[in-house]
Give the backbone structure.
Amino acid sequence: MNTTTRPLRVLGISGSLRADSFNTAALRATAAPAGPAIGLHIWDGLGAVPPFCEDHEGPPAPAGDHLRTALGQADALLVATPEYSSSIPGQLKNALSTVR
């Protein structure tokens, strides 16, 4: 029996652009009790995702490519986001829409 397994790779995305947001703190706090069984990587590229504009549609921005790669390497996704006008912030919507 193989007793060595790799940690579960979790990609965390904070829907807040503020570095010290409660959402980012919540992501960090979820990883602490898990110990070595879970490896949490918090993606910090949300601020680099350009706003959507039909006049400037084209290939995804590099931040979208980075998110797509990070999602491809993750076993799970954990999102902590503030509510904004009864929805999620536009920046997070833009980021998630680049990953088709």
